[in-house]
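Aim 2, interim progress. The first record below pairs a target sequence with its C-alpha cells.
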Amino acid sequence: MNTGFIGTGSMGGMLLRSLLRTGGLVPSNVWATNRTRAKLDALAAEFPGIHLAGSRQLAASCDLLFLCVKGGDTASLLAQMDPELYPGQLLVTTASTIPLKMLEDRVPCRVAKLMPSITQEIGAGVSLLIYGSRVTAEDRSLLEGLLSRISHPLVITESQGRPAIGLASGGPALIAYLLDSMAREAVSANPELSYEFASTLVRDTAFATLRLMAEGKMSEEEVIRRVATPGGMTEIGIKILSRHVPQAWQAVFRETAERERKQRERIAL
C-alpha cells in the first residue's frame, strides 16, 4: 500500500521516520510532501527511495494519507487534493481541533484522527486513535497494526479527546517540566547542589519509580504509602503538594479544553 505524509515537520517527520526505521513502512511505498523543501531533501537522503511530490500527486498515488498539519492549514490542503481524493482512501489527520464529522462531510474518504506522542521517537508510549463513522474493520486493523510497531495504540471517542490528548501527547512535556522544576527548586533551596547533579537524581529516580510500578506491579497509591511514612519528611511534602497540585492540574485541563473549543469554532473546511 502506498502511504503518503502531507507535512513532515515535528510530528509528521517523527511519525514517518519511526515507521520507516522499524520496518512498518518501506521507502519505495512512501510519498511525502512539505512546504519546506529542505526537510524533504533530508528525508530523501536518510531514506533513499521515498517519493517526493506535491499534495495533489500524493492524493492520486496513496491509499493511506497522513495529514500532519495544523487545523488552520487543513482547508487549503484539502482544496489542492480535492480532484484526486476518492472513497477508497483512508485519510488520517493529526489535527485535534478538527471535528471528524466536519472532515467526513468535506471529503469522500474514510477518515480517522491520530494523536501521536514524541515518545514514538523511541518506539514507546501511547498513540491515540479516533475513528470516523465510515472506517472499516480492515482500516482499524491496518492502522493499529502499523502504529503498534512504534507505540501502544489506544482507541478513544472524540468526546474523550482533550484530556486524553493532554495525558498522552502533551504528557511528555508536562512531565519533563515537573521534573525540571523539581530539580531547580532543590538547587534553589540548597545552592551547594549543582543543577546537573539534581537533574540526574530526579531523572534516575523517576525512571526507577516507573520501573518499580511496572515490574513490581505497584500502584501509585502503594508507592506513596510505602515511601511517605507517617510523621516522615516525605509525608510533609505530600501534604504540601496536595494543597497546590490538584488545583494546578484542574486549571491545565480546564483552560486547554476552553482553548480547543474556541479553535474548533474558527475551523472551516
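The second target in this work package is listed in the same format:
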Amino acid sequence: MNREELARLIDHTLLKPGARREDVERHCREALEFGFRAVCLYPAHLAIASEILKDSRVILGSVVSFPHGGATLFGKIFEALEAWKRGAAELDVVLNLSAIAEGNRDLIEEEVRQIMDRTPECRHKFIVEAGMFTKDQLKPVLKVMNQRRPAFVKTSTGVNTRGANVEDVAHLRSALHESIGVKASGGIRAIDQVAALVAAGATCIGTSAGVDLMRQAGEGGAA
C-alpha cells in the first residue's frame, strides 16, 4: 500500500492518562497533516478536537468504558450518548469482559443492542479483548456481532492483555460477516506489523504511533 492508503487505515489514538490540551491539539493537527482516517480520544477531549477537525475528512471517535469494560449498561449508554453529543461519530466500546468469560451471551447481546439502538448516528466498534479468551469463549460474542452487524469488531484495548496479532485478526475475519470490519489495535508500531495485519484481514489500525508509521513508510516506501 502507498502512504495515502496507509493513512486511511489509521485511527490516530491518544488515550494516555494525563494528556493535556496541547497534546490533544497536536494530535488532531497530526491527523490533518497526514490524512489519517480518524482520531480516537477520551470523551473529555472531544470538544477541543471537534473544533479543530470540523469540515475535515478526519473522523472523530471516542471510547466507552475504556479500558476494562466494567461499567453498567446504563453507564455505558450514558457515556456513549455523551460522546455523541460532544461530536463523536464513532464509538470504541469495551464489552463486558466478565460476560465474555462466563459465556453470558444474553448480557452481551443486550449491551450491544442497547448501545447501537441508543446511538444510531454513530458507527460502533466493539472490543472483544481477543488476547484474554479462547476461540470457543469468543464464539457467543461473534455470533452477536454477526446478528447486530456493527461497523467493526476490535481486537483489543492494548491495556488489559497483549495487543493485536495476526492470529486474532485472521480468526475474527473468518468468523465475522463480510460487512463487519476488523480493527487491529494494541502495540502496533512498525510497518511490517501493519502489512501482516492487513494481509490477515484488518481493515482499520488503531495506534498511537501513527506519525512514526508514516515516517517509516516514507523512509522505506510502500508498506
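The CA atoms of residues 8 and 37 lie 4 Å apart. This observation will shape the mutagenesis plan for the next reporting period.
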